Amino acid sequence: MNDKLLQQFAGEEITHVVKLMAPMKAPGEINKTRIILIPKVENPKNLSQFRPISLCNIVYEIITKVLVNHMGAILGNCINEAQGAFIPGRHISDNVLIAYEVFHSLKMKKK
Asked: 35: domain range?
């Protein structure tokens, strides 16, 4: 499992990731990161009412996407089967039946 994470990035991986990026958009500056404040409420009045996000440019995006591709192969082994959201091939709606069965069994135990 660690072998996949420790592998060096292959040229075809980087080419694949670059081709997935927006083709009609200029990359801009190479290594620039901007921190932007997103309001949590409609009319923010102090800093605690903002959420900071960082906007990284092209080099960081490439590295991140290649790392995600490397980790995607092993994530299935690291994440519990009950985790339904944010995992490719799994849907949070799949857990509705499990939740119903749990509530039903709890209700039956109370009787």
From this structure: 2-78
